[in-house]
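Could someone model iron/sulfur cluster with this protein?
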Amino acid sequence: MNDTSDLVAELKKRGAQKVALQFPEGLKRRAAEYATALKTAGFDVIVSGDPCYGACDLAVDTLALADVLIHFGHAPVDDLQNVIFEPYHVGFDVTVLKHALPLLKGKTICLVTTVQHVHLVPEMAAFLQLQGIDTRIGAGSTRTPFRGQVLGCSFAAAKVPGADEILFVGTGLFHAIGIAIATRKRVIALDPLTGIAQDVNGDTLLRRRFAVIEKARNAKTIGIILSTKSGQQRMALAQHLSSLSPNATIVTLREVSPDELLNLGFACYVNTACPRLAYDDQVRFPVPVLSPQEFEIVCGVRTWDDYAIDEIP
Ligand code: SF4
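Reply:
Sure, complex below.
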């Protein structure tokens, strides 16, 4: 467990007595340790046990029972009073980047990573510069406050003008594939924990999405999913999409699950909640779940050549 002395000092500065804790799924097993440490420091503690996958899903119901919510493991995606965002850094030896060097062909690269590793961006950039690689770091967006940080719903830091290709350092391939589609540039993904580097492109995802779009064309009823989570709610987008078809109806949902979609009975859905749902989970869903841009293609207001990956601004 990280040292809690800074957290304790911040809570005292805010005059907090009742403290709510929220952890993403990968850190939940630390809940008891943190609760004990803060109770020992004199605070009343309550833990949010609901599933959480991002700072877009703050435990506002649990915060209502406390003075302050401590949200672990994510950077803020919007402003909310009485929330402390507590980072959870995962370190590694930056010389692991040597495994990516044989795959880098461009003169200038853009370096991006996820929030767990973002504290190492200056060190990684210095390592690449030492190898003679002109390395650029993008500023990101309001959803990605750290330089070089990307999220599954925001690839702004990868859109650096003048970069020939992009080096993504992180685990999993979703971010790298998303960056490839969002930037239309060559992307190398390096897993810093295994040292495995690979050339990534969006072709397989795009082929799968083309098939989903074709399947959705005959749907007579369309549910436009509008999330009720604090950082995923895109009402203006849902209204725009709903206006494109007389068969479309906005449906609010907190958790988007195969069972809920089946029970609701629409022949097709359009997802304005977390963009990853449509791309990652289609195999679990009983009917086509389109991204907003894919629904625009079905409705004839966007062409396949203008395909774009869904990002939340
Ligand atoms: S919307 Fe999805 S990708 Fe974006 S922060 Fe939330 S969980 Fe992560």
